[in-house]
Structures are given as structure tokens and as C-alpha cells.
Amino acid sequence: MAKGIRLKRIGLLGMIFLLLFASRGFAEPVTNGEVLKEYVGSGYNGKILDQRNTLLRFQAENNLLVDGVIGDITNKALIEESKCIVDIVPEEIEEKEWFIVINKTKKILTVYNKGEIYKKYPVALGKATTPTPNYKFTIINKVKNPYWGGMGGKFKPVKGGASNNPLGKRWLGLSTEKYRGYGIHGNSAPFSIGKYISAGCIRMINEDVGELFEYIPIKTNVWIGTDEVLEEWGIKQHIEYEKNEEICYLLYGAK
């Protein structure tokens, strides 16, 4: 088993971030674009959506429940000066150049590079009536400006590249012998990220899926499961609080 470890230091910036945002979400506008720059997208302009996306990225990067709300757990992560982001993965993931794991419980897409944490992204997943399946997929295609077919006649089709296209402007198709038609894609409903709301596909922030699209190759493995299912597959993703990097590695990073 291998463990990807990241020591995060938040300190004053995290405290500022906490003070600026309402505890139940984003009740009031926030104008401080300097807050947590690491999690701010290139298009940040201080609007409510940008603020929400910043928090979603912070939660994903720290193995927290991605919901866009500053509850007790997110509050602690913001205030604590140092913490360890711990991902335990099996050798199968360590041996691959690229590997994607999607945690359905936390709503986090994690990219691994040779078993090490490369990037974590917040996502939206399938709602209760159309859940995202627990399964081991493979990326079979990548499409720019994908056409949306309207779900078999339920809705009017939307041409690729249109602002109202539910797939956004990037599509990474997933397939196995059992499941077809699922994919990782952008969105036309940006406030849906962090929710169980899709027809089963994995939605991402448009800027994030554009980034993912550029470096993840076709044939990359994509494992999707709840915390419990992922643990059965040898994967654990959590956060620990340690102030010393050496202690963090000794406790959680030994193979």
C-alpha cells in the first residue's frame, strides 16, 4: 500500500476566509479576491459563484465533504494552521502514470500521478433516482464542444459549444462492458457542483474540466465509489491534523 501525503498550512488566510463567509453558505457578497489564492480560478472576479467555487476547491483539496457550506469540519480545516492530507492507495494505482478516483461520499475527483496526489477537484454526481454507479471505468474518448442528445428524446438536443449545453465544453467518456453513456464533463448549471443532481454523470466546474481535459489521456482508469466501496478497493482518503511534517510522514506516510 502507498500513501500520498500533503502537509497544508493555512494560518491567517484561512482565518480571513472564515470571517468573510457566512456559516451556512454564502449569505452576503464577498469582495476580497485575495482570499485563499491557491483555490481561486483564473477567472475570479469576486462574484458569489467564484466565492462558492473557491470554497468547493478548498474542501476537495482537503478531503472534506464538498458541499459549499462552512460547517464544523470545514471550519476546523480553515482555522487549523497545519494538516496532513492523506490518501492511501493500492499498488495498482501507484504503478500507473495517471489514475482517477471519484469519491461519491465526499464528491471529490482525485487525480493520482504514480500513486501521488496530483490534483483534487469538486464534482456533482447522480441524484437518488439516477445514481452514479460504483464501478471501475476507463476513459474511452475526449470531446471538445460535445453535442447533447436530449436524453433519448426527453429534451430538445443542444449543439456543441452552446452556453445552455448541459455537458459544457468538454467531455471525457467512460465505458465498461457493463455501463455505457457515462462521462466526466462540464456544466450549464454552475451552482450544481457539490450536489447529487445529475443523471449519473460526473459534473465539474467548467474551468476545472478544461484543465483535466488537457493532461489526462484516453485509457486512464477511473474508479468510482463511496467511502465504503473505495475502502474495499484499498483506497482511503482523509485529513489529519499535524503541525510537524516529519511526524505527519512517520504517522501516515510510511509504505
What's the short story on this structure?
It contains eight helices and twelve strands.
Can you walk through the features of this model?
With 255 residues, the protein is an alpha+beta fold. It has two domains: 2-86 and 236-252, no CATH class; 90-232, L,D-transpeptidase catalytic domain-like (Beta Barrel). It contains eight helices and twelve strands. The strands form two sheets. It has an eight-stranded mixed barrel with strand order 3-4-5-10-8-7-6-11. β7 and β8 (182-185) form a beta hairpin. α1 (11-20) runs antiparallel to α3. The longest helix has 14 residues, at 48-61. The relative contact order is 0.19. Mean pLDDT is 85; it is low at 22-37.
Stretches where pLDDT falls below 50 for ≥5 residues? Answer: 22-37
**What is the typical, i.e. mean, pLDDT?**
85
Order of helices and strands: EHHHEHEEEEHEEEEHEHEH
Count of DSSP-assigned helices: 8
CATH third-tier fold name of the largest domain: L,D-transpeptidase catalytic domain-like
Q: How are the strands of the biggest sheet laid out side by side?
A: 3-4-5-10-8-7-6-11
Q: Give the fraction of residues assigned to helices.
A: 25-40%
CATH superfamily of the largest domain: L,D-transpeptidase catalytic domain-like
Oligomeric state of the chains in view: single chain
